[in-house]
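Agenda item 2: benzoyl coenzyme A complex prediction
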Amino acid sequence: MYAQIVESTGKAVKTLNEMEGEERVFQERINAGGKIEPKDWMPDGYRKTMVRQISQHAHSEIVGQLPEGNWITRAPTLERKAILLAKVQDEAGHGLYLYCAAETLGISRDQMFDQLHSGKAKYSSIFNYPTLTWADIGAVGWLVDQAAIMNQVPLQRSSYGPYARAMVRICKEESFHQRQGFDIMMKMCEGTAAQKRMAQDALNRFWAPSLMMFGPPDADSVHSAQSMAWKIKMNSNDELRQKFVDAVVPQAEFLGLTIPDENLAWNDKKGGYDFTDPDWQEFMAVIHGNGPCNRERLAARVKAWDDGAWVRDGLNTHAAKKRKAAKPVAG
Ligand code: BYC
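Presented output:
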């Protein structure tokens, strides 16, 4: 069991028989479905992987506010504006739960922000694409939030307790986000010919980037084998991508939209759709900082951080004063 070879790195995942002491107890607990809590012993690699994944996830939520925030002032009705505002606020909340979960592993929030602002930390590739029309807000909710749900529902069973628990609430909210996106798409598809064209155009541009959200193909995934052995990840990247395609195709049919893939076809043998892989070279460029909006997104986050310096200073000064006042007076 758990002896998968990580082909891309050549490193093997240790079998239970190769483990001893604390490491073996740790793995046995995971194998039995137990949760790991912050004060428990854990291998350095597990801690490092959890910090990486949770902080990347938190950064994705925070950067993910930008493409949608772009449309708050231009939402077509007051109701749509209120809904979008609530959704963008939810993303901020998700980021905060996740930063808290990562902090339980010994990294500070300042360190995580440093990693984001310096370009060292990754965040989801999808947020480096622009939202050009109102239909893009529909496509983001429908496709991006749906991809997020596919990925995150299994993470509610992830082995690290604080992450799994954060995911329960996040998934409930993502489900509302997905439905609001589909609702926008339905309205546009039932509207004028021009509105339907906008919906199709949004699907055309967001389809491949949504497939990329699940990460590289399994054969090129560096972390999957170890993360699955530690039950940090419950499914492989390709499994979830397939599940996403199988769910979205009938939804697109219902909307009267066409998935932009000439090779899309039902495959009876596998019980799922065959589809064209996204352009993995483009994916690599995006995750290494060279996507259409990477620079703009990071600049916006750095500016928000710099503009907020006076608030942090004020809060720190106030906290220091309170600490001083709370000190018992000698005598
Ligand atoms: N974008 O070995 P692999 C949301 C990186 S929030 C960027 O397969 P792993 C939402 C990967 O980090 C969505 N980078 O990695 C928010 C690794 O590089 P490093 C965020 C990616 O970790 C607001 C390298 O490629 N969701 O939906 O086993 C509004 C090799 O990959 C991506 C999460 O973060 C990508 N798409 O699997 C609306 C969920 N894919 O770190 C919506 C939690 C791969 O070695 N995360 N990379 O430099 C996960 O489930 C996993 O981390 C992933 C990747 C499936 C994303």
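Discussion summary: The pocket of benzoyl coenzyme A is lined by residues 52-53, 56-57, 60-61, 64, 91, 122, 124-125, 144-145, 148, 151, 212-216, 221-224, 227, 233, 237, 287 (CB under 6 Å).
Owner for follow-up: CH.
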